[in-house]
Every structure is written in structure tokens, then in C-alpha cells.
Amino acid sequence: MQVAQRPADLIGQTDLLRLRSLSELTGCDIYVKLESQNPGGSIKDRAALQMIKDGFDRGELKPGMTVVEGTAGNTGIGLALVARSFGLNMLAVMPNDQTKEKERMITLHGAELKTVPPVPFRDENHFYHTARRLAESRDDCWWANQFENTSNARAHYLNTGPEIWQQTQGKIDILVSVAGTGGTIAGNSMYLKEQNPDIQVWLTDPDGSGIYSYLKTGEYVSKGGSMTEGIGIMRLVANFRQAQIDAAVNLPDQDLLTISRYVRDHDGLVLGSSSALNVAGALCAAALHGPGKTIVTFACDLGERSASKLYNPEYLQQRDLSLDLEPMESMLARYAQKHTEVWYRHG
């Protein structure tokens, strides 16, 4: 009988789900990897486990120490869960504008939570800098540093990418992913392109992020903002440097409303905001390169973690987002007619 000895042992080997509704609509096979199946409820469990395992292997971590990390939520939850499995404590530093659902999960896992105002990265009170200072101020603390710690990308190179290759039996044409730290898109793109260099890797970027602009022009420029959390960035970090990206698209929050309701109503899957952005990116790739393609993306976390934003009518109205949703056929046609600009590495 195979029995896990700790929650961290259950991380990975998540299922691949074919989105029947969008697959039939586009003539492609569109799959989502259900990362909500991880014990901490998100894809960030993978990076958390690899960072802590590698920290022990390098002699940086010892039982009883405190892991410190700045997080938009999911990495903090993953680290809190893994820390307990390895006899560690956890201190998460989080902007106070993230969903309360994530705050609660961090503390429920026994971690200490410090919230700070959401400020630009250049401000020393930014959650990243605050976490670094706290870790450096005590000898018994270890800073996970998910943005620059390439164990993040390594988790996906060693595990997620091989899982996708095995689950699709090597029949994958396009991988679609959002990026925050860049670990997911970097590790998966490195592994999958080693297996087949012709696999196309698409990045989907929300408003308020500068990654699309960086890929297109070499400069980080953003417009507007987004309800997504932990997605997008305005600086180049070590994990993202490793990503092998062929195409990128910037999509507005309004498209996330449309895709999330459509998938919920037709497939019974409740997507979080970053997952909805991934699926919208997959739809765009299908519209431009289908039919007949196999496209894989990620359901990054539990949809309930977006309940207070993506599924909250009052919040959506405050952001001037319409609940009068565009028909999915219209959205698909808009993508197919190239009304949404796509950047391609080679022309």
C-alpha cells in the first residue's frame, strides 16, 4: 500500500483535463493541468517544495529555522505547508490588497503573516524588500527569494514538464502560461523544448504588467491594472531569464470574466483569475493556429481564491468591468481576426 507520510509528499502528479467546450469550439484539444490538486491548492506548492529541498541540500536550511518570503499569497501558502512538513517555521510578507482567502490560508497553515501596503518595487516598504530585511535581521531565518531562486524553475524542469510530456504522450504543440516569477514558464519551456524544439511557448500577460512590452520592445512599460494577483512584473528576474518564449499576448480583465463564466457553465470548472488568463491565452492560440493543435495550460489554483474579486459583482463594478458578457463565439472571432495583438519572437 502506498501512503504519503506528509502533505509535501503529495505535491505534483496533477491531472490533465480536456476542456470539452473550448476544444469543440476551436477544433483544437485544449487541456488544463489541474494544479489545484496540490495539497496547498496551487502550482506554487511545486516551487515551495523544490526551494526548501534545495535549501537543505545546500546546507542553508536546518530544522527549526524560519522561512521568510514575500508573496502575493499562493507561494506563501505552499511554503507554509512545506515548512511544516520539514520542521520549519514560516513568516509570509504580503501586500494588504490581496484576497482575504489567501491571507486566511497562510495563517491556517500555522504561518506568521505580516501585511504591508502595496507600493512600487522601488519603495523600500515593498513586500519583497520587507521580507529580505526581516530574513537578514535574524540568524535563524532563511529567505526563499522565489524571484531570484532558480530552484523555482527547476521544480518545473524536473517535474511539471516531464508530467506534461508523459500525459500528452509527447503530442503537444503549444504551451500557454502566465508569468510572475517566471518559474513555471521557464522550467516547463526548457524541458519541453529539449524534447521537441518545435513546441511553441506562449506567454499571457495581464494589464498592469510589463512583460509583454519587454518582449516586444526590450523595455518594461505597463498600462492600467488587473485583478490578477502574483501575475506580471516590471523587472527582469533570474527565473524569467531562463524562459524560452515564442509568442506573447496581452489580455484585458474583461476577457477573464467571459472565459471564467463560460468554462464554469459548460465544463463545471471554476477558474481563478490567473487560470482564466491562461485559458484565454490558450483560446487565442487556438484561434490563430488551430484547428488540430494540442494546447496545454494551467489551472494555477483553486477558483475559490478569486471569489472576492473575479466572482464578486460589487468588486467588478468598482473596476468598471461589465457583467454583460461577450458571446464566446464573438471572443473567438475577435482573436482569430487579430484584433488582439500578438508578439512573435520570429516575426
TrEMBL record:
It catalyses: O-acetyl-L-serine + hydrogen sulfide = L-cysteine + acetate. InterPro entries: Cys_Synth/Cystath_Beta-Synth (IPR050214), P-phosphate_BS (IPR001216), Ser/Thr_deHydtase_PyrdxlP-BS (IPR000634), TrpB-like_PALP (IPR001926), TrpB-like_PALP_sf (IPR036052). Its EC number is 2.5.1.47. One of its GO terms (biological process) is cysteine biosynthetic process from serine. This is cysteine synthase. It is an enzyme of class 2 (transferase). Pathway: Amino-acid biosynthesis; L-cysteine biosynthesis; L-cysteine from L-serine: step 2/2.
